[in-house]
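FAQ: What does the model actually see?

It sees only this:
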Amino acid sequence: MQLTPRILPDAQAIGDAVADRILDRIHAHQGRPFLLGCPSGRTAVPVYEALARRAGAGADLSALVIVMMDDYVLPDGDGEYRIVDPTASYSCLRFAEEEILRPIVEAADAAGTVPPTKIWTADPLDPAAFDKRIEAAGGIDLFLLASGDSDGHVAFNQPGTPRDAKTHIVTLGDATRRDNMDTFPEFTRLDMVPRHGVTVGVDTIARQSAEVVMIISGEHKREAFSRITAAHSYEPDWPATIVTECRNAALLADSAAATVPAG
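And it is asked to produce this:
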């Protein structure tokens, strides 16, 4: 299914629009847990900031469950992998705790409402359990998606990822690792970026999400915008095109990403 993008002025406008959508969906759930699939990194930060502002204004986000897409892992020497130190700045669990949940909790506390408390992450020792946990909960209610700048990765799904991929351990390509050097400035050399991750699969996203919102913002995402708006179905060389096969899919972009350079 080819997607028609909604173009908004800037990343903050996207954040406000998506936060309002999330609040509408939470309200419709009438207090039942609301699973929000979340990327770390820059793209969705305006959404998280907008949710915190709404919590500060008295919005009830107590039902929110933050479901993280991925995290870096390290080999443990016995053929297994472990999540990186959760205090490391590039830890996706740390990002969830400090950049998504904490501002919402602090805003809710200030407003006198009940804050959310739950974060879900995949266990690299049993990746399949993450899909089972999501399925047992009724699926992801709304999944926020972002596309890699240069290789179209979504979560940590690399170019060439098969369509039926579930949550799995992945070897990260250099393009994904370079993209993440921009996200985490302390990565001053490519060899500092972990080489492996645990990630939801593209099938996890498509099969287990009731609704998805792909966010594309900034001039550096123009290629991503072009690839995704041109796609009609999943293209393995640009995994973010999985959005075309998701239920209730929306594509929101800012004018910088959607502008075709002159000449």
